[in-house]
Specification:
This protein is of the alpha/beta class. The chain is built from 31 helices and 26 strands.
């Protein structure tokens, strides 16, 4: 079998099927999307509607990716699956309908083509009843989570007859092409994440009713202390839709044996749930569930669980120390213990049924339900022995897996060979990652760091590659980060072959400069301190660009403002596909001042597709910076010049650091630092032209008064200053001086100070 996916097919163009097709296209794979025939002449209309739904819902990382999707109908076009390497079925959850489809596919697919079902409820054994041996060899379940673009988890179920090479092909394609973290599951009802996640939701909701908590109190307790998203339990039920309770929980409970502990918390029988469904109060999609906006108002209301009526939402907090919270002798403490004890005991009891090891279960819950840590890591945090002892004191069963963990110090540990985790049979196994997928957390555990301070650290990744990690809140750039950038540029080349800029923050590579420091200094009118901050950043980023070894930026999540500027100074970028990048300084009344304006001009000046002449270069950079737009993906970042055509994009977050390291090693052979760059710009004439554009926008109401002021300084920097002209190239240091001059003037503007304070206080831009 060929070890790659050149073409895919998805059958079923509902929200999941069309989303899976979009993700294939995001990964650069042509995909055929089929659905039932439309009633009119356009028989492909249902599939086309699925495609349009994904365009509207931003299932595509860039609109151009949709060009890789072709549509048709099952009745007319099923034979077109013949050249697909992987066929994904995502039709209605009816085993008979699926089996009839599989029988047709078996006669059409090419030899060795993988076929998988996206089912979340039907066992693999049931799906393959009556199938040929050849079909069973190439059949799996690939359970994606919604939305397929953003949810990293894919649960993989291989049957006893599934060929290892088919499973390997699908696993590799899911990781590399679709960007998924693949977790191997056993063929059991709801697999891992939904089995445990639905149980947790049932317990959290029903125990809140039993303990007399309000919805706000329950969400506060079952949220942050557990490392669960801030929706908590009732906010989550509103989000997924209360009307799904009879369907999802009913199906799951029907598939589980009566002795399964899930039956002790059955939400389908709760009178309040039934009442809300009957009255159409089913959550956000109905504008009312456990929470709602008061009619004709933006005031939030919460449901009184005793009366079923709404009242003003109240504030609620809970002790974030879960170990202390469960010891509290009040309703919140008793409720926290009920949720924790039932969830951990259930996970330990069914672990051997659903997975090979507890690490797989923890991963599934982190990525499928957004938990900060899975149930077994959570048990380690609270203390396995404390949980087991209290269960025993209460006369409740202690599952053998939990008892073993309590006796031996937990479910996870650090052994002589590295990280170890328990198998679900109770033994210890070493966690091994492929060499191409290094883990920064594991590198840090081994330690010590090569260099560092309170804001940033340098770590040894092995093979002569160092990693510079930012670790402030949202990786906002402060003096400590700038100091470490400068130190790394000077010290790392003496010990290493290359440097990678990377961190594990799930939300941000860097959210830009520390606005708190800006506000503090501005309110003190300490402009000299801010000018030193600008100088420090310019010097640090210049040193990084001209370091004696190659530097590769590896961003994921937000990379805005100064976070974007540091990337512009790297020799190359290997970006996660879900990188949201932009120079957004205009929103706070300034321009990019850490040489970001200069670097963007240099990039546009070198692009083969740039607008013609010096004015074209200046205007392209000006429009990009003045737009202050954050890209929706790494694919979009290429169009704006933040990524070059040769920069790489990694679909899977788990592979990003390894891909960046490999790129850095490739660049290190024969590396020479770049010389001082220069670009030809239009000078004063261009500045006047750009300012005229901004004046027009101001007159049309598209720009505010301070937008015009900031744009004037930006226009000067983008056009090279008063001495520039078509025959006089401007070097990067001169451009950086123009940035500094602009920053020095703009920080003294009261309107800039108002913008920065408003952004810090509200997170939203002020149009003044």
């Amino acid at each position: 079998m060929e070890g790659t996916i050149r073409k895919a097919a998805v059958i079923g163009a509902g929200s999941m099927g069309s989303g899976i097709a979009a993700q294939f296209a995001n990964g650069g794979v042509p995909v055929l999307l089929l659905d039932v025939a439309g009633p009119g002449e356009d028989r492909a209309a249902p599939a086309r509607a699925g495609l349009e739904r994904q365009l509207k819902a931003q299932g595509f990382m860039a609109p151009s990716a949709a060009n890789l999707v072709s549509v048709g109908c099952i009745e007319d076009d099923l034979a077109a699956v013949a050249d697909a390497d992987w066929i994904v079925e995502a039709v209605v959850e009816d085993p008979e309908i699926k089996r009839r489809l599989f029988a047709r596919l078996d006669g059409l697919r090419k030899p060795g083509a993988a076929v998988s079902s996206n089912t979340s409820t039907i066992p693999l054994a049931q799906l393959t009843e009556g199938a040929s041996e050849a079909f069973r060899r190439d059949f799996l379940i690939t359970h994606f989570f919604n939305p397929p673009r953003h949810m990293r988890l894919m649960e993989l179920v291989a049957g006893p007859g599934t060929a290892p090479e088919t499973a390997a092909l699908v696993r590799d394609a899911a990781e590399r092409v679709l960007g998924k973290t693949v977790v191997d599951c056993r063929d059991t009802p709801a697999f891992i994440a939904n089995r445990l996640g639905c149980h947790w939701m049932s317990v959290a909701a029903i125990e809140a009713l039993r303990h007399g908590l309000t919805v706000e109190q329950a969400d506060a307790v079952a949220g942050a202390p557990f490392g669960v998203p801030r929706t908590g339990i009732f906010g989550l039920l509103d989000l997924v839709g209360i009307d799904l309770v009879p369907l999802v929980w009913g199906s799951l409970l029907g598939a589980l044996p009566p002795e399964d502990a899930h039956h002790r918390h059955d939400p389908t029988t709760e009178p309040l749930i039934r009442r809300l469904i009957a009255e159409g109060r089913i959550g956000r999609k109905a504008k009312g569930g456990f929470y709602r906006l008061a009619p004709g108002s933006k005031a939030r209301e919460a449901l009184d669980l005793a009366t079923g009526e709404y009242r003003p939402q109240a504030e609620a907090t809970a002790n974030r120390d879960l170990a202390a919270l469960i010891r509290q002798e009040d309703a919140a403490g008793r409720y926290a213990w009920a949720v924790l004890s039932n969830s951990i005991a259930y996970a330990a009891a069914v672990a051997g049924e659903i997975a090979d090891d507890v690490a797989a279960i923890d991963t599934a819950m982190r990525l499928g339900y957004g938990w900060a840590e899975g149930p077994f890591a959570l048990a380690d945090r609270v203390g396995c022995a404390a949980i087991a002892d209290r269960l025993a004191e209460e006369g409740r069963d202690v599952p053998p897996l939990l008892a073993a963990a309590a006796a031996e110090g937990g479910f996870h540990r650090r052994g002589a060979a590295g990280r170890e985790t328990r198998t679900t049979a109770g033994a210890w196994t070493t966690v091994r990652r492929p060499q191409a997928m290094p883990d920064l957390a594991e590198v840090k555990e081994r330690g010590p760091r090569f260099a560092g301070n309170g804001s940033a650290s340098v770590w040894d990744l092995g093979d002569g590659v160092a990693c510079l990690e930012f670790h402030t809140k949202m990786n906002a750039i402060d003096q400590g980060i700038l100091a470490m950038v400068a130190e790394a540029a000077e010290r790392v080349p003496a010990e290493f072959r290359a440097l990678v800029l990377y961190n594990d923050n799930p939300r941000a590579f860097s959210a830009g400069a520390n606005l708190g420091y800006f506000v503090e200094r501005l309110e003190a009118e300490d402009f000299a301190a801010l000018e030193r901050f600008v100088d420090q950043g310019q010097a640090a980023f210049r040193a990084l660009k001209h370091a004696a070894i190659p530097v590769v930026g590896a961003p994921a999540g937000l990379a805005v403002g100064g976070g974007c500027e540091v990337l512009l100074h790297c020799d190359a970028i290997q970006a996660h596909a879900e990188t949201y990048i932009g120079l957004v300084e205009l929103k706070v009344g300034i321009i990019p001042g850490w040489r970001g304006t200069a670097e963007l001009l240099l990039r546009w000046g070198r692009r083969s597709d740039r607008p013609e002449g010096p004015m074209g270069t200046a205007r392209a950079a000006f429009e990009t910076i003045a737009g202050a737009r954050i890209t929706g993906s790494a694919l979009e970042a290429r169009a704006l010049g933040y990524l070059r055509p040769e920069d790489g994009i990694t679909m899977g977050r788990d592979r990003l650091l390894g891909d960046a390291k490999a790129k850095a090693l490739t660049l290190s052979d024969g590396y020479r630092p770049p010389g001082i760059g220069s670009v030809t710009l239009p000078g004063p004439a261009g500045r006047e032209a750009l300012q005229a554009i901004v004046r027009g926008r101001r007159e049309d109401g598209q720009a505010s008064p301070h937008d015009e002021v900031v744009a004037g300084w930006l226009a000067d920097a983008c056009c090279g200053g008063p001495e520039a002209g078509p025959q006089t190239p401007v070097d990067e240091d001169a451009l950086a001086a123009l940035e500094r001059e602009a920053l020095s003037a703009l920080i003294r503007e009261p309107a800039t100070r108002a913008r920065i304070r408003h952004m810090l206080d509200t997170g939203k831009p002020l149009r003044n």
